[in-house]
Amino acid sequence: xxxxxxxxxxxxxxxxxxxxxxxxxxxxxxxxxxxxxxxxxxxxxxxxxxxxxxxxxxxxxxxxxxxxxxxxxxxxxxxxxxxxxxxxxxxxxxxxxxxxxxxxxxxxxxxxxxxxxxxxxxxxxxxxxxxxxxxxxxxxxxxxxxxxxxxxxxxxxxxxxxxxxxxxxxxxxxxxxxxxxxxxxxxxxxxxxxxxxxxxxxxxxxxxxxxxxxxxxxxxxxxxxxxxxxxxxxxxxxxxxxxxxxx
Length: 247
Prior knowledge:
This is allene-oxide cyclase. The protein contains 4 helices and 9 strands; from the N terminus they run H-H-H-E-E-E-E-E-E-E-E-E-H. With about 250 residues, the protein is an alpha+beta fold.
């Protein structure tokens, strides 16, 4: 019992403040012990908040020009392209799946033609795709197709389109996507039949991408059935084609 009482007395004496220390001194020590860690935490949080605030200001400035440009969905860039069938690619191939003597629903027409810059001074790639015959229109002496195809621009990437392809009048197709510098692209393209199926002129209205390479831009030769690519572009001379153009 004496030992137990001694232990209790010892514990009690440890928990009591020193009676010889002043109340002010005890309060100061208590204040120091209880608030200093909190103060340090508060300072740390302020530092962290300041760092986050600085980061939020820095990140937008670090965005590349391409990303900043692509954030402006209202911007429209025009791209002009001639598609010319020079009768050297075995295109088009007519697959008469309807097994009828006249063009009919279900007939397929795979095709691939050469692409030239709108100024006709550079070879820039090819088209590749397929047309599905939807309706023969005898009064127009032509046909209506649903077309799904792509425009390949060598190292610059490609643009895919889909929509109505009429052999007897101009149409608009949807731009459905792309790769390379055309990644994320959308918009529409106007197709003008100059001499079906040998000469076509396209005006792309592109959105959602950064500024196009200057090599692809520029004013076109006005479309007409008489237009022809330059001799250098036809011969794919180094100064008359884009880098690694798709052939």
